[in-house]
Amino acid sequence: MPEHSVPDLNDKSLLKHECYVNGEWIEAKSGKTFDVHDPASGKLIGSCPEMNKDDIENAIQVAAAAFPSFRKTTGRERSRMLRKWYQLMMDNAEDLAKLITWENGKPLADAKGEVTYAANFFEWFSEEAPRNYGDTIEASIPGNRVFTIKEPVGVCGLITPWNFPAAMITRKIGPALAAGCTVVAKSPGETPFTSLALAELAHRAGIPKGVVNFVTALQNTAEVGEAITSSPTVRKVSFTGSTGVGKLLMKQSADTLKKLSFELGGNAPFIVFDDADLDLAVTGAIACKFRSSGQTCVCANRIYVQKGIYDQFVNSFAEKVKGFKVGGGYEEGVTHGPLIHDRAINKVDAHIQDAQKKGGKVLVGGHKMTNLGPNFFEPTVIRDMTMDMQIASEETFGPVAGVFPFDTEKDVVEMANKAEVGLAGYFYSRDLQRVYRVAEALEVGMVGVNTGLISDPAAPFGGVKFSGFGREGSRYGIAEYQIVKMITLGGMSQPLGGS
């Protein structure tokens, strides 16, 4: 097994092994910790506090104590805080990328892209913070004057996944702080060090004590989640993760009627019509399917290609995949890194075997790469996919591209919409009327037309059906952390007085 280098950080103080609560670095009250391993080599990175319910309740109370003063800061003050945090991220982008690659496994170039993407949420919401506009409403009753103001919802519990250790956190904290909320952010147990580095930069940015609190857990994740959802002090929960966990968190939040936004599982259709620019479609499918080795919620999971160009597309697509270089994320020229853990490897392997048993033909890949390390799998292309295969209905979350043939526009839209989830969908066509028809017919929250990359801080991100509800990013994102308060003034039609 090859050695995988440990990152040489320019600023070693960014590597934190404690949680950040009330502006201080603390251990779990129990003293317990959990270990984090490099998915490329399996080697130990370090340990983090295994926090439990008591630790979380303390962090919640800290955030609650900070809320009354923080909510009174002006939008311009909060803007400056976020802007400073953004700048510190950009100043330390190289170290942040090294941490992401170390604990997540994605190639360093991809990690650098994530850091920029993540920082841009702070920049975007620093610009939204001073622009909290209400409305003046024409009242139905003479003498009344009606207007609205927007207020922060309160203490927010944020629960994020491991696949984008920086961006999923900033996408939630950015709008929360812009709105005037305080937060308790639960970092993913697989990738906690990136979030703790962000906490250190928050401290340097001068974010007031108690406004942002970062907690970690692995074995106690369910206990921590329930502590957040059941607390009457927490008024908002934002979660990114699986549909199953989202349903559980929603049930747990019911008794306290929290405001919720959930970005849950995806099973994105990627459709190529026979009038598409074939080269553009192949390039888009490569970027969409294999970004982060297929470990993204919006990556293509079901690739549908019209029969007239099916063979041509599949052959060109497979040739591109043959050019990938798999290895440790720090290695020169590596395009794709390891999967996050053995459970991910096993799911990928099961989906490939299922497809082969039911008639699918593997053109590229299909095997574990144990010579590289414990969590490497060959990027895989399977042709002749059918709707009875597991990939047709289950999200793989790995480097497997199953390509389905289809006949008509009607057929493919029906197949695409058959999924319970509806996060993202993509299609390629040069027919303008078809573009409008299909974009409106797909039952998803986001559509990419002639592009495989749709994530942008300026664009609203979120799904429908079992992919959840609420939007992140864009001008809609801050509304998830606000309450609209209506104020009516009566007796306002008195005649003008003399003097």
TrEMBL record:
SUPFAM superfamilies: ALDH-like. Its EC number is 1.2.1.16. One of its GO terms (biological process) is gamma-aminobutyric acid catabolic process. Keywords: Oxidoreductase. The active site is at E263. PANTHER family: SUCCINATE-SEMIALDEHYDE DEHYDROGENASE, MITOCHONDRIAL. Belongs to the aldehyde dehydrogenase family. This is Succinate-semialdehyde dehydrogenase. It comes from Lasallia pustulata.
